[in-house]
Amino acid sequence: MKNTNMTKTIMLALLCSSVLSACQSQATTQNSTSAASTTAASAPAATANAATAQVSTTPTPVTYSQDDEYSDWTTANPSYIELSESGASIKGSGADAKDRTVTITAAGTYVLSGLWEQGQIVVDAPKEDKVRLVLNGVEIHSKESAAIYVKQADKAIITIQEGTKNVVTDAAEYKTEDSQSDEPNAAIFSKDDLTLNGTGALTVQGNYNNGITSKDDLKITGGAITVYAADDGVMGKDLVAFKEGTLTIEASGDGIKATNDTDASKGLVHIDAGAFSIKAGRDGIQAAASVQVNGGSFTISSGGGSAKAVAKAVEMNGGMRGPAPAAATTRSTATEAESGKAIKAGANITIAKGTIGIDSADDAIHGNNNVDIAGGELTITSGDDGIHADSFLLISGGNIEITKSYEGIEGSNVTISGGETKVTASDDGINISGGVDGSSIGGRPGQNNFSSSSTNNKLTITGGTVHVDSTGDGLDANGSILMSGGTVFVSGPTANNNGALDYDGTFEYTGGQLVTTGSAGMAQAPSDSSTGRSLLMTYSQTQKAGTVVELKDKNGNIVASFAPDKDFQTIVIGSSELKKDTAYSLYTGGAKTVEFTIANSTTWLNETGVTSARSTGPGGFGGGPGGAGNRGQAGMGRP
Fold first, then answer.
1. Strand pairing of 95-98 and 108-117?
2. How many domains, in total, are found in the chain?
3. Residues of the domain holding 163
4. Where does the UniProt annotation place the signal sequence (predicted)?
């Protein structure tokens, strides 16, 4: 994304007092955002509350018991298991060794050390028992199955002892105990709850399938853990939760995964803190239900990264997908195995804070239901959508920079009430859609489906700062747009088959700072029914990128000043500084272009002055109304 001119644009626009006020309001909103907030701040409250009322993204709290935390195991009267080439030496009760297998059959703490080639540790204790395995400088290499197999226990706790390095490796081919269920199928495999804690280092090599798997809850509260996996890296069924630690994953399949898709209250990935480096052949983080991020730092590469994305069809004529450019191919229907999303949820995604860097072949952030971003620092490079929600997408805080995408932000309903959002898109910057999301791939039945009714689809902007640099439409609503606050700058398309603004219903503009630049063929302005004032200027000739445009009042005071990043032929300006029956002048490249008086909510201009509805100005371009149900194009107007 080229931010230099965009930044200059916003800084110059801040000369007007209305934008200063808006930015102060935005700062207040960001500072007051809570971790679980899904409230769309700023006016109109009725609209924001109505949107929020339909969204259920409040994070499910995750509790950690005393067993989940690291404790001094030396006071627990542990049993010691020393592993070596000659066999296993056991000091204490509750464990037995036979051939190359150590079986633990009772509750207690078991300290493992030494090298165990062609060996396995099995936990097969009563269902009510808790078993702690302390990895105290141990290497376990199985040649037939999982290296650590928790067959039964109430819970297994693996403690990684401070200052030690530990290695666990499974077989490339298993003598599977249960061929029908393919269990076990991970280097560390548990049929019951599993927790990893401590501060030492653990390397897990999953040669057969997964690295670490729990068929129930999986919690990690500490440790420096590195996982290599032939398929998925770290998997839990009902819950995968992280409280602290460092996790590095290289997986041919998914990086982190929660699989329970039969109980809506389960199948969660919940992250409170930690450092994560994930390189996944498919999805980076995937939850059957929801993903909740309350902190942590993340570097995620999924599906081979954005460079591996399938080429997309171009967007043209307000949303109809046309042929792809030369040497490109349109996307075909794909399977779950081909999904390369960075963060994906079968229901909701909530991000409260954290530092997240993403390079994804498919969507970077994808919720089959809702997405709520209330904070955090997000840097996204995507081969498809930057952020996608099948239903509601809420942005109330944080700093989001989408440096590369096909469509930047996409959902049936998008509400932006705070934060700073920067989008670079090869197609639409912000897209409000109905029907099926044809540009996205992968997922279970029901994924990638939008609400079918475009009359209910809305883009609502009540606060925050939004920068869009798009080759297709800048703000594209297959429905309506409502703007009552915030600052929006769109550096839109240069080709006439797209527009900086594109909406099917109405664009009700009531406040905030709005500046859009782009081509003339499909240009639109806010609706005439708006209570705020705006203008659309159409030039007879294309203006060069970097040309400074200034809007001044009759006393020569600057209302807005900006220098578009790309060539442009139309400009839309909306500001609370614009007053009815007041004279203004528009300067382009230092020269006065046109003088005019604001008479209506939307004023249509060319070099000759104010134009009437559907009139034609120099060069064949003109303006039309933007009223209810009217697309209000300049130039190549539709019937």
1. unpaired
2. 1
3. 69-115+123-218
4. 1-27
